[in-house]
């Protein structure tokens, strides 16, 4: 049965990238890992490092088997090995040191998939089977909820790539500028829904004391790679064209440079294409500066209203996120100084402030004027 998590943007689906064939990847079990991985929660509960080590070694494909893998099998294999990689590191063991023969397998899977040589948040959530075949570290219902919360976000993020790319090609006087922003706002709302779902179903203490340690970095051929943390969900894809490409700060820029490597190839290409562009906020500010009086052209006003709306949604998401992060990393429960994606609380605060500053700038540009009615595809029908 198809679920909401299987729905992605039509444009990306039609490109034929197998990474978007979610049902196929979930169904794949090239290593015969279903039965061994079902016992991982019990092994983790017992801190049974020898059993985890044997399980990792036992799942490694033979060279001739690995040579026959396509992208779908390679993604599924990395997903399944990844659960054991994170489990071993949680118990203080570098998995490649414990099982050296895993190294060439990880490197080969990384090359096949054009991704980092370990599992990412995509493997752990979107490409993870649902139901009885679900790969988990703990088996706890809150871990399932955490995975579901991340799965909720990806359809909107995938769709936002096209709307943000469209936005980057347009100017604020163009009716399509506001249309692209309204569609982006619809996609971004899934982020707020996701974090509300997380608040309702996942305790910050559970994340801090049970889950966080499974997302620790591991050494692969001398390079440290972070685990499949929710922080790898690339909200920066939307920041990039809205404001980040020319209105950021060095700390956030540096974080993005480190985070982009964990993304899908198409998303890395999107980042490379737009990182040096002119943001929507800068375009709007420049357009407004040319207006000699308070009589802002209606289309420019509509663009400003639409841009403020998207930034307001992003601001709401980040305010909720920082509240959760503060609870998870409070002195009473925290085991780590930084989040699972490597970001300290101070950086989250800084990005929230940047988002708020840009939203305030845009909102104030239209406050003295009466806001126009929402743009519609047809009378009374708001654009999704």
Number of strands: 4
Overall shape: it is elongated
What is the gyration radius calculated from CA atoms? 22 Å
Structural class given helices, strands, pairing? mainly alpha
The poorly predicted ranges are: 1-14, 370-384
Helix count, DSSP H or I runs of 4 or more residues? 19
Biggest pleated sheet: 2 strands, antiparallel
Q: Please estimate the helix content.
A: 55-70%
Strand order of the largest sheet: 1-2
CATH architecture label of the largest domain: Up-down Bundle
- Assembly annotation: single chain
The CATH class of the largest domain: Mainly Alpha
Average pLDDT over all residues: 86
What pattern of helices and strands is seen along the backbone? HHHHHHHHHHHHHEEHHHHHHEE
- Return the CATH topology of the largest domain: Methane Monooxygenase Hydroxylase, Chain G, domain 1
Structure description:
The chain is an all-alpha fold. It has two domains: about 5-140, Up-down Bundle (Methane Monooxygenase Hydroxylase, Chain G, domain 1), CATH 1.20.58.1320; about 140-380, Methane Monooxygenase Hydroxylase, Chain G, domain 1. Helices cover about 60% and strands about 5% of the residues. It has 19 helices and four strands. The protein has helices at about 10-15, 20-25, 35-40, 40-45, 50-60, 65, 70-90, 95-100, 100-115, 120-125, 140-170, 175-200, 205-210, 235-245, 250-260, 265-275, 280-290, 300-330, 345-365, and strands spanning about 220, 225, 375-380, 380. Helix 11 (about 140-170) packs antiparallel against helix 12 (about 175-200), helix 14 (about 235-245) packs parallel to helix 16 and helix 18 packs antiparallel against helix 19. The longest helix has about 30 residues, at about 300-330. About 45% of the residues are buried. Residues about 1-15 and about 370-384 have low confidence and may be disordered.
